[in-house]
Amino acid sequence: MKLPLSEFVRRRRRLLRLMGRGAAAVLPAAPPRIRNRDAEYPYRQDSDFYYLSGFPEPEAVLVLIPGRRAGQTVLFCRERDPAREIWHGRRAGPEGAVRDYGVDEAWPISELDATLVELLAGKERIFYNFGLNAEFDACMITCLNRLRAKGRSGIAPPREFVALERPLHAMRLLKSPAEIRLMRHAARVAAAAHVDAMRMCRPGLCEYELEAALLHGFRAAGSQPSYNPIVGGGANACILHYTENNSPLNNGEMVLIDAGCEVDHYASDITRTFPVNGVYSPAQRTIYELVLAAQEAAIAKCRPGNSWNAPHDAAVRVLTRGLVQLKLLRGEVRELIKKESYKRFYMHRTGHWLGMDVHDVGDYKSGGSWCRLEPGMVLTVEPGLYIPEQKGVARKWWNIGVRIEDDVLITRSGCEVLSRHVPKDPDAIEALMAR
Q1: 88 assigned to active site
Q2: Number of neighbouring beta carbons within 10 Å of residue 267
Q3: Could you say which of 48, 57, 269, 407 is catalytic?
Q4: Does residue 81 carry a catalytic annotation?
C-alpha cells in the first residue's frame, strides 16, 4: 500500500505557492548510517524529503524553485550504474526520477556543486533547515560563498535563509485522505500483531518471544517497526522506554507492550497492558481500569476546537482522583493537580502528534497558547500509571505498570480511534487470552 504519485505532486505545488517568487528550497535525502564496520542500518528516507518527493534513495537532493520556466522541481540523484546495482540494488537514475516520481528535471548528483549555484543565483530567500545534516550544511555554506563571489557580476546573493520546517511541518500536521488511509492500514497491521502477542502469551515465555511475534506480524504484512518495540513484564513495565526485552514473563505479573509499524513511511503507535497468565488480579484490574477511565475521558476531549492540552487535562483529573481514592495520594484533588503530585506515578504527557514520524512534527503551542485540534490531525492518547516498589506504597501495588495507547484521528464531528481493533476492555482481553 503506497501513496499515489499525484499526492507528492500536489504537496510540491502547494509548497511552491507558499514560498512565492524569488525563493528556492533545498532538501537533502537522509545519509546512510553505519551499524558496525561496513554494515549499514536499513535505509530509511528523511521524512521531509520523502513527503515532497516520494523518492526512496540516498545521495539525492530536491530543489524547488517557484516560477522557474525550465521546471519548478529539480532532483539530483545517483546515475544508473549496472556494476554497483548488482551489489546494492536498482537505482532510478535521472531518467527514472522524471518518469516515476514526477519531477520536472533530474540531474546526476555529481553535478550538484556546479548546478546548485546556478539554480540559486538571484534568489532572495532560501528555504533550508540548517543543523540537521552537518555534511550538507557545509555544502550549502560553500554554495552561499560562491554566490557572494558573483556579486561583482551583478548577481546578488540571497538576503535571507528561512527554516523550511515552518511551512512544511504545518502542511504535514494536517493529513490528507490518502495519508489517513495509510495510517488506518498501519494501525490495523499493528493491531493484529498485538492480538497475536496476547494470544500466545503465557508464563515461562521471555519478553523477546512476544517481540518476535510482533515483528513477524509487521513484516508478514509488508510493514516494518516504526520504533524499537517495548515488551516489559512485571517491574519492567515501570520503565517508560524499556527495550531490553530479555526477561522472563512470570505468572501473576502483567506485561506492557508498546509497539507500532510503518507503512510507506507512515506510523502507528499502540500500547496494551495485559496479564501474563490471562487473568488480572484484583490490584492489577483496579489500576488498569483507572488508566482505562482516564484514556476514555481523554479521547472524549479529542474534538475539533478543543485545545491540544484538553485530553491531557482530562486524563490527569481522572488519574489524580483515582489515586486519592486508592490512598496512593493524599490531599485535595485540585491542589494535587496544581502541585503536579500525580507525577510520582504518571510522569509523561498524554499524547503526541503521529504521522510520518512516531513523534511527528507540528507545533503544540502558538503564541504561548495551546494549539486547537483540527480535522485531519492525528495524535496518540496514552495515559499510564507506574508504581515501582517504594516506601509509603502498599505492597499489593508494587511493580504494577499500565499504559493504554491508541491512535486518534480528529474528524469534523469528533474523532476516530484508528487502533480500535486491539481490545482494551479487561474482560475482552481475558476472553481473548482464554481462547
Answers
A1: no
A2: 28
A3: 269
A4: no
Q: How far, in Å, CA of 61 to CA of 120, rounded?
A: 14
Catalytic position from the list 253, 272, 403, 407: 403
- Read off the pLDDT of residues 248-300 as tens digits, 9 standing for 90 and up: 999 999 999 999 999 999 999 999 999 999 999 999 999 999 999 999 999 99
Q: Is 403 a catalytic residue?
A: yes
pTM of the model: 0.95
State the amino acid at position 190 in one-letter form.
Answer: A
**pLDDT per position as a tens digit, 321-379:** 999 999 999 999 999 999 999 999 999 999 999 999 999 999 999 999 999 999 999 99
3-class state of residue 353 by DSSP: strand
**Cell numbers found for residue 238:** 515501570
Annotated active-site residue 100? The verdict is no
Going by pLDDT thresholds of 50, 70 and 90, the confidence category of residue 119 is very high
Quick check: is 258 catalytic? yes
Residue 162 banded pLDDT, cuts 50, 70, 90: very high
Report the b/e string of 297-336 with b at 16+ CB within 10 A. Answer: bbbebbbbebbbbbbbbbbbbbbbbbbbebebbeeebeeb
Q: Is 211 left (phi over 0), alpha (psi -120 to 50) or beta?
A: alpha
Task: Give the CA dihedral 93, 96, 101, 104, nearest 10 degrees.
Answer: 90
What's phi and psi for 275, nearest 5 deg?
Answer: -75, 140
Beta strands 270-275 and 254-259 are: antiparallel
User: In the annotation, is 169 catalytic?
Assistant: no
**Hey, is 409 helix, strand or coil?**
strand
CB 118 within 8 A of CB 88: no
State the pairing for strand pair 34-36/39-40.
antiparallel
